[in-house]
Write a structure and sequence with these properties.
alpha/beta, Spore Coat Polysaccharide Biosynthesis Protein SpsA, Chain A, 9-stranded mixed beta sheet, 13 helices
Length: about 325
């Protein structure tokens, strides 16, 4: 029997409420040449009972249950990647779900060019009960922006452009070409490992976009994506990932990039409930990226405080 073209990895932890919808949205894809690999990270809810109902389904290659929680979703990613038979890989987060043509459109894009290593679609952001929160659209200057070096430099240094793994399909070869570096580094992070993953996946490949909504991205207070930004550790992770990319790709930062990075760092640490001492250490640590950042961050914060004094109702 020939291998499937696409391997779908579903890493799950305590998402019993969303699991059935997640799995069914994959099984009901119009493109059907895929396998599913399910990895449960020692869930304490009723996830196992739901997953067991699918264990004999012909599309399911593996359902693996951890006896202890890994403590890091990116360890689960690596575990899943080691099991994939397909040439294309979809990491389908267990609380998200997809439109029926997600694979149809993303596979077509990957098939179109050897230069394309990853395809990313538009998403509707939803809440706990599937209520719509947002439907952001991608803004790019030109197709040249999607080429590897341009994309990393202009769209990944000040934030994770590929903000939701469920909206991306990528080529396994792009991972394998950089496997050692990826596996070694992404597990160092709890919140930002995906950001670094995509940056390394695209070292030798371009990104392409599907300019239509094909994914539902769940944003709730209890989710990793919503909570991670509230940790002081995430502020340091953000700085470390940016510093890594800068060094790895030998990027000379311009004023526009430094300004955007300062805004990113401020956005992350403002979301946490930290004291002045914490803010100071974060600012000081940002010298790892560029020596001017502590001053620039401090200046921006000073201007913000002055603005709030003159306009106390401004957020």
């Amino acid at each position: 029997m020939s291998s499937p073209l696409v391997s779908v990895i579903i890493p799950n932890y305590n998402h019993e409420k969303y699991l059935k919808k997640r799995i069914e949205s994959i099984l009901n894809q119009t493109f059907q040449d895929f396998e599913i690999i399910i990895l449960d990270d020692c869930s304490t809810d009723f996830s196992i009972a739901i997953l067991e109902k699918y264990k004999t389904h012909k599309k399911i290659s593996f359902i693996l249950y951890n006896e202890t929680n890994s403590g890091n979703t990116f360890k689960q990613w690596i575990k899943g990647l080691s099991l994939c038979k397909g040439d294309y890989i979809w990491i389908a987060e267990s609380d998200d779900f997809a439109y029926k043509n997600f694979l149809k459109y993303t596979v077509e894009k990957l098939n179109a060019s050897d230069k394309i290593g990853c395809v990313f679609t538009e998403s509707i952001w939803i809440g706990e009960n599937n209520e719509k929160i947002a439907n952001p659209k991608h803004k790019l200057s030109s197709i040249v922006d999607l080429e590897s070096s341009n994309f990393i430099t202009n769209y990944m240094l000040d934030g994770n452009f590929i903000y939701n793994a469920s909206a991306a399909l990528f080529k396994k070869v792009a991972y394998l070409q950089n496997k050692e570096t990826i596996d070694k580094n992404i597990i160092k992070y709890k919140a930002c490992g995906d950001w670094l993953f995509w940056a390394l996946i695209l070292e030798n490949y371009s990104l392409d976009l599907v300019y239509s909504t094909q994914n539902y991205f769940r944003r709730i207070e209890s989710s990793v994506s919503a909570k991670s930004i509230n940790s002081i550790a995430t502020s340091f992770e953000t700085i470390n990932v940016i510093a890594f990319m800068k060094k790895y790709y030998k990027i000379n930062l311009g004023l526009k990039q430094i300004n955007a990075i300062a805004d990113k760092i401020i956005t992350v640490y403002r979301a946490g409930r930290f004291n002045i001492k914490d803010h100071f250490f974060i600012q000081l640590y940002s010298t790892k990226i560029h020596p001017s950042l502590p001053f620039l961050i401090g200046l921006k914060e000073f201007k913000r405080k002055i603005s709030r004094i003159s306009n106390p109702f401004k957020v």
